[in-house]
Amino acid sequence: MADPAALDIGPDPTLLLMDDDEPFLRRLARAMEKRGFDVKTALSVAEGTAIVEGGAPAYAVLDLRLEDGNGLDVVEKLREKRPDSRIVVLTGYGAIATAVAAVKFGATDYLSKPADANDITNALLAGEEDKPPPPENPMSADRVRWEHIQRVFELCDRNVSETARRLNMHRRTLQRILAKRSPR
């Protein structure tokens, strides 16, 4: 765990955490508070937008996909209200296209889940020229494959036959993969 005294958060420690996974959000909020951030949490795009409207935070960690919309909407709103904010976009569906979109909308960095508090803190506090260190626990190749399959499945509106066709995979093979738990 990072030593809070060693972190250079700056004069404004305000941090918005937005994710629809409530247990993850609570754990991350506690971890970031221990690091010296003044945390506000939101479970939806509407809540995140309301927090930004009420006073734009210096830092934000935003989930990309939420029940009521897209985290990129909050990135845009935050950039309008506070151009100097440091924004990290988190998602369970890591892909180059979404990373590029997040950065174009104004995100400072982009991390795939599962990301821990140290990875997030490093990304938030990295300087413009600094590259954050590689993650301590990167996703395994099996996990990356599983995430990609899940993403395509969601984009095909959970249609197994269409997903199998697009992935050039037999439908039964895809069904077996979808029935299993996600790899670590």
TrEMBL record:
It comes from Oceanomicrobium pacificus. It comes from the Bacteria. InterPro entries: ActR_PrrA_rreg, Bact_response_regulator, CheY-like_superfamily, Sig_transdc_resp-reg_receiver. Keywords: Activator, DNA-binding, Phosphoprotein, Transcription, Transcription regulation, Two-component regulatory system. NCBIfam families: ActR_PrrA_rreg. Residues 14-128 form the Response regulatory domain. The keyword DNA-binding applies. GO terms for biological process: phosphorelay signal transduction system. This is Photosynthetic apparatus regulatory protein RegA. The modification 4-aspartylphosphate is found at residue 63. GO terms for molecular function: sequence-specific DNA binding. Member of the two-component regulatory system RegB/RegA. Involved in transactivating anaerobic expression of the photosynthetic apparatus. It is a transcriptional regulator that is responsible for activating expression of the puf, puh, and puc operons in response to a decrease in oxygen tension.
